[in-house]
């Protein structure tokens, strides 16, 4: 099966039970018997000049850089290089989703790889990134009508020079609201056929808080960090959908911000400002980054800065050390102790839970200590959490599914009834964009559990993290369906190879009651989903 956003609903999420699968026989017959007209065949042919890409070679002097992607290969972090100082404005490039492209275009632009690839190193090498950069190269010289003739005072009508156009483009981009979008209307192989529209995100500004709003919501017991304008913040690299490396007065920091649903960001901010310090929990925010909005004229808090730990996440470090036989037992036990200590401290002092425990959210400090990060409390992907959390999350997904292919009436009602019983406010917590929940989280699944059940789920996730740590792998799955890692795991939890026997007993105790996950039936091999049974059968035949 091919990877595309529809795959999420039909295979990965439980929404397959709501899927309409019947197709009228007449449509099947028509689809099977109708040949392609000659003009359409030529229109799709690679021999047709319009279906040829001029070049995918790296540009000599690019105006932009691609730092990564998300949203299953439809959103790309584009960093302008023609600006002397680039503020972290998060003006990303959006392209039509994968399922709308022909197989020819998907193969030529490596769109299937983009579906599950996230990091800058690998994404920047994909053909689709080169294609986007070449279109942006042309568009930059025309942004906001920069290529049009103009009259400067009483002087003659003329066109702007190259440097003037780049200066014009810089002013145009910096004047946009934070999180605005550069929309490609298509992924034509002829880049000149791709029309670009800039969509300012004025709607996002409505949900941004000012410092005064925080003080009114939290009271004066929460001490806020000093504010700094976004123009004083210089982007170095966008490393994740919500985090980037920035520089302020010559010093590097992590900048945390969201381009949608800022309620999660503000919830994390409050947690970090009120959590008692611990050496293995990320320190409190250093700055609040603000920008005056065009909607209402308030100084909106876009995000906050944190201490930068340059070694990066243990998701990449642990498998690298494991593959090079430099992952020492001493460090494994040290990190295991530090992670457990931090998790226990947070549970005992914060009065809340930590639902995001995985190696992705643990970074390595300069002194090679484990540091827990990411306190949005959104939770992890399906099947990363404990069985009870997964079960509730599946019910929530079924109760709130809205996509057109689904029957969203009678077949959904049983799941809605279940959610009404276990979490009556589930719809408000999920869909409301406004930050108005100042005490608890927006995580429906975890809020549905008792404190004891929450702790048991944390212990389950701790067991899986310990397994990753002592087996030297990035994640419990061999190949996570919607994201690939630089170093894919060669094991499937709970297979053991390296973990000491007594640690195996501990991990088994932590994950007692575990269930088989989707990976036991369906897994990603390269860019496709395959049935594990078929894969094993083919491997047996090849012997």
Salient structural properties:
14% strand, Transferase(Phosphotransferase), domain 1, 3 domains, six-stranded mixed β-sheet, Prot_kinase_dom, five-stranded mixed β-sheet, Kinase-like_dom_sf, single chain, 543 residues, alpha+beta, 17 strands, Phosphorylase Kinase, domain 1
Textual characterization of the structure:
This is Protein kinase domain-containing protein. It contains 20 helices and 17 strands. The strands form five sheets. A six-stranded mixed beta sheet has the order 8-12-13-11-10-9, covered by helices on one side. A five-stranded mixed beta sheet has the order 1-2-3-6-7. It has a two-stranded antiparallel sheet with strand order 4-5. Strand 1 (64-70) and strand 2 (75-80) form a beta hairpin. The chain is α+β, with helices and mostly antiparallel strands. Mean pLDDT is 90; it is low at 22-34. It folds into three domains: 64-200, no CATH class; 205-307, Phosphorylase Kinase, domain 1; 310-543, Orthogonal Bundle (Transferase(Phosphotransferase), domain 1). The relative contact order is 0.10. The chain is globular and about 80 Å long. 37% of the residues lie in helices and 14% in strands. Helix 13 runs antiparallel to helix 18 and helix 18 (451-471) packs antiparallel against helix 19.
